[in-house]
Amino acid sequence: MNEPKPLLMALGGKTVDPPPLWLMRQAGRYLPEYRVLRQKAGGFLDLCLTPELAAEVTLQPVRRFGFDGAILFSDILVIAAALGRALSFRDGDGPSLSPLTTAYDLALTPDPAVLAPVYEALRLIRATLPATTTLLGFAGGPWTVAAYLVDGSGRTQFAEARRWATERSDELEQVVTRVADATAAHLAAQLDAGAEAVQIFDSWAGLLAPAAFRRFVLRPTRRMMAVLKARHPQAPVIGFPRNAGTLYGEYFTATGVDALGLDQTVGLAQARELQRQGPVQGNLDPVTLVAGGAALDRAVAAILDALRGRPFVFNLGHGILPETPLAHVERLVRLVRGGA
Ligand code: CP3
């Protein structure tokens, strides 16, 4: 019989103690072994789109820290490349795309040749994953990906995408819908290739006023959930509408995601409230992990006190920062697992 996987159990609504643990962006520049491979690969996208390298980078943090989840090494913007947009990553500068001028600049369906290496990486990872580690796939939320497509980068705080949300809202809806359909297919293909659960990173969900949030976050996410639940009814989906504030509860109900990722601005009383609706994941401030010391110990204890004993996955409230000391991550693992 297969061994139970703690992360998969918690995402399925079971209480697991100690809670399973993984970190958003757990593969990356804070790891010396990542920096070595990144140097060798040349570009960040080469790393993402070479299956053997993507698989190796995915497994690095799992080997070092024994996390309960292995998250595919890729990026939320590979779907933009698959939809025909030229994508580049310049060092220290984040992603660049040529800005969309109309919704018709986007291909109707993703180019399978662009995404094939992603699925191959998942097959490689699944074949060598430790028996109790859960393999996570992911994609960006349709609004967040649309925001990068329309602005071309994150440098302008998505001013143009926000302008479309009010002045060209029908066109934005078309963009978001195309991205949602492509993303649903991409996530389903990740599950076909060996991912056991998936996370939707809607990192910029918190920029939208409630009516726009409903139209550009909730509706397309529900549309993706219909596809995912038809094709993979058993696979848990984690929704992460970062900085959604008081709209988190509505997101949980309206989209039908199985588990809810919380950023660090969500207070623990609100987190407990949300936990009545289903499993929650989060929400240590990544800056506290950089700080370490007594501040880290206190913050971790507060989260565990509030959220353990019900379905819960320990994580950060956003991605780990490149300046995070390895010793602080080791300490976090001991604190969560109860051996500190
Ligand atoms: O979690 C993981 O370890 C899996 C890998 C992963 C990456 N990006 C690798 C990456 C995941 C899950 C992402 C998601 C992602 N990508 C998001 C959503 C999460 C979030 O942070 O809000 C967003 C908005 C992106 C787009 C993106 N990719 C940006 C804005 C940047 C530049 C910022 C940065 O950290 O450099 C990237 C580049 C990127 N994606 C890196 C990594 C490891 C750094 C590239 C490098 O090695 O130089």
Q: Top keywords for this entry?
A:
340 residues, 15 helices, single chain, alpha/beta, binds coproporphyrinogen III, two-stranded antiparallel sheet, 9 strands, TIM Barrel, seven-stranded parallel β-sheet
Short overview:
With 340 residues, the chain is an alpha/beta fold. Helix content is 51%, strand content 12%.
Structure characterization notes:
The protein is 51% helix and 12% strand. The protein contains 15 helices and nine strands. A seven-stranded parallel sheet has the order 1-4-5-6-7-8-9. A two-stranded antiparallel ribbon has the order 2-3. β5 (197-202), α10 (210-231) and β6 (237-241) form a beta-alpha-beta unit. Coproporphyrinogen III binds at residues 24-29, 38, 44, 71, 73-77, 89, 94-95, 138, 154, 201, 203, 319.
Strands, helices and their partners?
Layout: H1 6-11, H2 32-41, H3 44-49, H4 51-65, E1 69-71, H5 78-82, E2 87-90, E3 94-97, H6 112-128, E4 134-140, H7 142-151, H8 159-167, H9 169-192, E5 197-202, H10 210-231, E6 237-241, H11 248-255, E7 259-261, H12 268-275, E8 280-284, H13 286-291, H14 293-307, E9 312-316, H15 326-337
Bound molecules: coproporphyrinogen III (CP3).
Coproporphyrinogen III (CP3) binds next to β3.
CATH architecture: Alpha-Beta Barrel
How many separate domains make up the residues?
A: 1
Secondary-structure element pattern, one letter each: HHHHEHEEHEHHHEHEHEHEHHEH
Rg over CA atoms, rounded to whole Å, is 19 Å
